[in-house]
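Standup notes
- DV: blocked on the single-chain target, sequence here:
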Amino acid sequence: MNVEQLQKMKTAPGFVAALDQSGGSTPKALSSYGIKEGAWSNETQMFDIVHQMRTRIITSPAFTGDRILGAILFENTMDREIEGQPTADYLWTVKRIVPFLKVDLGLAAEKNGAHLMKPIPQLGALLTRARGKHIFGTKMRSVINQADPAGIREIVNQQFEL
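- DV (later): unblocked, structure below
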C-alpha cells in the first residue's frame, strides 16, 4: 500500500471525482459533454472517445490534487494511458490524485427496497490487475431505496462477503 496516498485520504480536505462511467452510462456522459450517440459506430470507438474526454479532464490545469483527493476509474480507463503513462500512475505522479477502481458490474433488480450488486465473478483477477497498475482502492455500490430491514441486511451481508 502506498503510505503517502493513505495519508492523503486520511487527512487532506477535498473530494473524490467519479470518472467511472461504464458501457451503459457512457453514452449519457458523452452526450452531456456535447458528443451525440452517432459519433461512434461500436463500443470500441465509444470507449476511445470517452477516454479522450477523460484525458482532457484529467490533464486540465484545474484537475489537481489540491482539491481532488481521488478519482474513480472504470476498468477500461485503468488499462489505458495518459500522456504515455498508465492512467493511475499519471493521476498520482503528475496530479497527486489517488486512483480508485470501480469494480462492481451494476445493480441487480430491486428486492426488499434495495438493489444489491450483480455478482462479480472475476473480482480476484481484477484486483490483482489493479494492484499491478498501482490502484489504491476500489469503489462498488448498492442502493437502498426503502427502510426495509431485510434489504438493508442483504446489502450489508453482500458488502462483508466481498
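- Follow-up: Strands lie at 15-19, 68-73, 81-82, 85-86, 98-102, 114-115, 137-139, 143-144.
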